[in-house]
Amino acid sequence: METVETDVLVVGSGPAGAATALALSTYGVPNVMVTRYGSLADTPRAHITNQRTMEVLRDLGVEDQVTAQATPQPLMGNTVFCTSLAGEELGRLRSWGNDPLVQAAHELASPSRMCDLPQHLMEPVLVNAAVSRGTALRFHTEYLSHEQSDDGVTALVEDRLRGDTYRVRARYLVGADGGRSRVVENAGLPTVGRMGVAGSLNIVFEADLTELTAHRPSTLYWVLAPGATVGGIGAGLVRCVRPWTEWMVVWGYDLEAGPPDLTEEFARSVVHRLLGDDTIPVRITSTSAWTVNHLYAETYADRRVLCAGDAVHRHPPSNGLGSNTSIQDAYNLAWKLKLVLDGTAAPALLDTYSAERAPVGRQIVERANRSIGETAPVFEALGVLATSDTEQMWRNVDARKAATPEGAKQRQGLREAIAAKVYEFNAHGVEMNQRYVSDAIVPDGTPDPGFGRDPELYHQPSTRPGAKLPHAWVVRGRERLSTLDLGGHGRFTLFTGIGGDCWEEAAAAARKELGIQLRTVSIGPGQEYEDPYGDWARLREIGDCGALLTRPDNHIGFRHPEMSPRAGKLLIGAVRKILGHG
Ligand code: FDA
Fold this sequence. Notes:
Number of strands: 25
CATH architecture of the largest domain: 3-Layer(bba) Sandwich
CATH class of the largest domain: Alpha Beta
Bound molecules: dihydroflavine-adenine dinucleotide
Structural class: alpha+beta
Distance between the termini: 41 Å
Number of domains: 3
CATH topology of the largest domain: FAD/NAD(P)-binding domain
């Protein structure tokens, strides 16, 4: 039987697999990516692309391509609640960084802007870049099984065009094969939760809805009509794919009864029901049934098999976290694979992948499922849950217009219930606050500052080891750069300032002794980079002559508040610990 050799076999070409392949190829690691079908995603699926993901894509050199194709943030921003698109509007929520206060927080937090890029457009960007940088991509190729030995993994794959099987022998295997992951199953990774919590339908269609939507531009239009609470994601949804002509409806079904027969006639009737106008011409382009899941893996790795994306965290699309988290998993994993494969780091570094990412996966699975439940108070405030009589439901919805104390109370209740959905549609903290604890983070002895404000809603930068490097604009001559641009690029970076010469010398010693790529960056008046706004000085939480060491994923691995006669020893010790050498 034929055997193909590579360093890393990536199973799956969705956001997790494609981003893994892209990062590996960017770092020069030979990799083969196999994917079961003959094409990339052919339906929109994921779309909300958050700031942290955009920072990752910026570091991997594809941010501009994504931005060029994406619907920009200002057009994402009015989450609309209505009885149908042509019907009555019940309220709006400024979303996805479009509330003026949240917008300021977004601008301060990152050099990158959130945007909306449907998955069928995102995947080609990632995969094209991966392939152009060296990834060997095999379509029509299905992973079947694997075996591990001390020095590698051998996977059995099937060429679905030829109908035969062959082996791929790799040093590591990345299972990025989605929500029905066979790799996770074969690796026996322990999972918590369950699949199939509720049933949902996607109906993708073309229709010119400019008249109904362009005056209240949004990515999501929620339809709170009688019947919309059955299964699915808690309400009927009309989602913009491309403004304002390509759309997707998400509609629930009763799991026990099974998915309905997805005929074109049925699909059209659901779409027209949510649009509230059956004279609007609609062209159905695809339909599919899926389930809402609530499941996460407790550990992401079994020796040389490491899993990422929906394979290890399965949840509904609420909060738009799935593809984002998948891409961020890949970014965490790829540099570790690179350093272990080239011998710079010990294999123990790979243990930190699961330690750092599994808590994030669990958090987003819980958050996304909680968000579904948090739609119920909106229905309650409308009085839709109080009766099963449709006529009475509509009378209850109308009751909020009455000039009575009850009407006022209902109006207040509805405003509050819609405002509380901020935890789904503007959860900047959920998107940006990951702080890692693992053996690849060197504690500096300071107590955990926790979060001064709600950690789900507000991004709170920190330089305590484990946190992501805070963003600040600094300048070099006429050029403006983010601190995040100075780090990343597959290497370690040491940030210091005036008087930090001992750290520059320490970095030179670390490069020599450990053979790592380590850049030094000095920020301050007269240094290579200047901090004209004083933002960096406010954010860095160390003195001018202190040091911050970022890992290749721009998370802080080590910090020291000031100069030190032991700088060389401290830095080398820290890098050795991060690399798993003790
Ligand atoms: P994904 O399922 O995308 O890819 C798996 C890959 O593995 C595919 O290429 C498949 O062909 C391949 N594969 C599977 N088995 C294989 C085998 N045995 N051998 C070879 N290849 C195999 N997320 C988000 O971040 N923002 C959002 O706005 C939304 N919105 C959203 C809306 C809707 C309606 C849905 C259904 C989902 C979302 N999501 C989302 C979630 C998002 O789609 C999901 O989290 C990502 O696609 C997960 O990416 P993965 O790469 O992990 O799996």
